[in-house]
Amino acid sequence: MFYTLTANPAVDMTVSSPSLVANENVRTYSASYTPNGKGLDVSFALKKFGRDSVALGFFGGFTGKFIVEETMNMGCFCQPVWIDGVTRICAYVNDGESEYGILNPGAPLTPQYEQELFKIIDGASEMECLIISGSVPPKASPDFLDQVVAHAKAKGADVVLDLSSDKLKTLAKTGPLLIKPNHHEMKAIWGVTIDTDDDAKRALELAHADGVQNVLLTMGSRGSAYFSNGEDIWYAKRDFNIKLVSSVCAGDCTLAAFLNKWYDDRSNVEEALKYAMATGANVAESVGLGDFGHVDEYAKHVTVRKL
Predict the structure, then answer these.
(1) Range of the domain at 305
(2) pTM confidence score
(3) Which of 144, 180, 213, 286 is most buried (most C-beta within 10 Å)?
């Protein structure tokens, strides 16, 4: 079974508004409040594909309670570590032309809370794969993620990483099954600007050289992605445009869709890429995750080729 870890979850407030004006109040058109966090998004998306998972994370205060309750209301399993403090609220504002993200730091961790999480991982008898996504809270131990990976690997579980920090490069040496950087993260972590297929090849080779088994490299608003297993590279691009509502959950759902098709059949790369791109696009044109109502149709309009 898939397990997901969201160390720093949030309640996301997604706002549609007129243009923002400095030093003036703006009355918004609408606002929605959703339980969120990169690992949680993966669990929610997997559930929409009919696949159960267990969501792990640290939760505190009224916002933490809201996230856990909503997670279970969606039919997802959740094993929370309850902490002092209040789980963060993050705001995303779309004024019709631009999207603004305001991300708060989150409630701090203590070594005690970390140990509680490690005990949950150690006792997770059904864990086949742990998906570790997103940022870590303030005051987390410097080796917190290293320890998470070590506990998962001690159980024989695969590890998937979706991290935007330099820690991704460090953890690459542990041989994760899959990482999912976007092109901005690839540039920041491996130092390669990706404008061409040759750029992508060079970046992917660097990730593999550091120990990564497989790489799903997403290109954001370009509507494309690369996948490499260390031997072959595939390129996928959607042949349609969307009207962006919020890109917040799109990458997480792209990862979930890919894993849903690929994890049990590693040769199923082309279909996995088509559904990954289709899901990311459908989510980006929705508030929150949306209903995945266009995924099957969009998948027919994604072109995949080997480089």
Answers:
(1) 165-307
(2) 0.91
(3) 180
